Amino acid sequence: MRIDVLSLFPNMFAPMRESIIGKTVERGLVDFNVTDFRDYTENKHNKVDDEIYGGGQGMLLMPQPLFDAMDAVEKQAGSRGRVILMDPAGKTFNQSIAEELAQEDHLTIIAGHYEGYDERIRTLVDDEISLGDFVLTGGELGAMTVVDATVRLLDEALGDERSAVDESFSTGLLEYPQYTRPADFRGLKVPDVLLSGHHANIAKWKHKEALRRTYQRRPDLLADYELTPADQKLLKEIKQEEQIN
């Protein structure tokens, strides 16, 4: 996969060379590039933003630097790929979108700054994505989040393909509780079923606890989760246990 990011602050992306994402770059799974679109401005003062026609607060990013930077990406890569604009008005990013983006061969992410974008910049874009109902100083942190969540889903990125499948949101439920050694730490014990070696019982426990955690912390997710008759029975048990406790 090739990933291009257009940003005014390329140094903010230095952490993307670390950890799992950095390893995917080292191993050639990902070709990660950050372009400073200020380098493409034709303004003699090196400006990339200007006042808003009709009045308004702040400054808008001008179209010319971003259009020319995008042309440079296309010339180098052979295409623009799927172009994503980080914008508070975009659709909220989630695991489903990450899984969709992980199927692409090339992503180009525009990480803006200042008050916003000249509307004509949106003609370059295939998708507009937001992290949620809040506003950041710029799109860099959002872009890094999208890259991280997407790249870790690529084949061989995590080393164990099951890791991404079992995680929170990938199944529609939050992830079940997990434990490691020691089995008894300061009186806090690992559930007996996980030490039993009985794979069917362990699988049932994991699924029930995933349902429990989702019910406790994100009950809204259950509205979109297709509960089987067995799930409904487990959920009934969970609600009864919660009332007792």
From TrEMBL:
Molecular function terms, GO-annotated: tRNA (guanine(37)-N1)-methyltransferase activity
Compartments, record wording: Cytoplasm
Ranges for domain tRNA methyltransferase TRMD/TRM10-type: 1-223
EC number: 2.1.1.228
Signal peptide coordinates: none
Binding site for S-adenosyl-L-methionine: 112, 131-136
Reaction(s) this enzyme catalyzes, per UniProt: guanosine(37) in tRNA + S-adenosyl-L-methionine = N(1)-methylguanosine(37) in tRNA + S-adenosyl-L-homocysteine + H(+)
Source taxon at top rank: Bacteria
Coiled coil location: none
Keyword list, A-Z: Cytoplasm, Methyltransferase, S-adenosyl-L-methionine, Transferase, tRNA processing
UniProt KW Cytoplasm keyword: yes
Keyword S-adenosyl-L-methionine: yes
GO biological process: methylation
Subunit field text: Homodimer.
Known role: Specifically methylates guanosine-37 in various tRNAs.
Similarity field: Belongs to the RNA methyltransferase TrmD family.
Name of the protein described by the UniProt record: tRNA (guanine-N(1)-)-methyltransferase
Organism: Weissella thailandensis
